[in-house]
Amino acid sequence: MSEDREEHPVSGVISLLDDIYATKILLETSSEPLSPLELADRFDVTAPTVYDRIERLREYELLQVEPKLHPKGHHYRRYRVNFEQVKVKLENGGFKIEVSRTEAPVERFTRLYEGFQ
Amino acid sequence: MSTLELPWGLGEITAEGGSTPIALAALGTILVTAIVGSWLVLRFYRGYRQTGERASLLLAGGILLVAPVQMLVRAGLATFGGSLLTTHAAAFVTQTVGLGLILSAIYGSTKAVQYESRQTSGYLGVIPLLILLPGGILNSGIGSDSVLIVFFDAVIVIAGIFVALQAFRGYRYYGSMPMLYLSIGIVLLTVVSAVISNLLWFGTLWFGINVPAAGAILIIMITDLLGLLSISYSLTRA
Q: How many pairs of residues across A and B have Cβ atoms under 8 Å apart?
């Protein structure tokens, strides 16, 4: 699935939710933010696989970078789940996907602003 | 330099020639604002290119309106002899729209409808109203200038405190130094700037404190400039 960059966003999201590693990443990062290496350790898969799924999840904003807790503490980024609910609707002769966010406003503000650094 | 009379515009100072220290300081402030503002635009654009999030764009636009754009609008109008009220109204509209954009970036898409280009933000609908409102009040002739100025500033102070508080909480919760300097910058640009201009305005009106017009404008511009510098600092060393 990683080769097919041109697929429709609706099927992109659905296929991610059907992907074993993508769903594992979502499950693990829903309770605590984790780095790609920590994730790779937990699933016993290679780092590139984890990076690939993270990249795809971020493409659809299902995963987000955790705002830095202690600026000096981490050497790599940690990720966490960025949604609460995904709704698939059949409307006007097409499918539509709605993603409901969980990010708190202050968290969102901090993440967006730190993105300018 | 002789004490300048009304209006509180830079028009009077520049008319005196570029030799007065205040006029030079004002021109310097405008120049620095333009330079720092352009640098911010580049920074924000680069950040937006990395995330590609629409909210980044809203936040960037909002901060630009609150800080450099508002400062240049104020200085520009003052230079072309705009009255205190016009200058204030223009700065009010710019800053309110800016604060509105920041809020819509933070709260706008908690529920994002993606991949259907039907994403709308309820907050953005308020913006046309905010643009029309001051103009409407000015035309209707209700209230004296003082009432209007207090109204403008009250809105800016409340919205400014709210946004700055969110930024400060970002610093408290996540230890984010950029958010600390951002909140300081927003407080200077909205709250402090508005309070100072009110003190000067009512001080002159009621207590006859004679602050030269040019000096008053300069104090506000310097406050705003410190706010702008705090924001740009937050994106470099903080």
A: 100
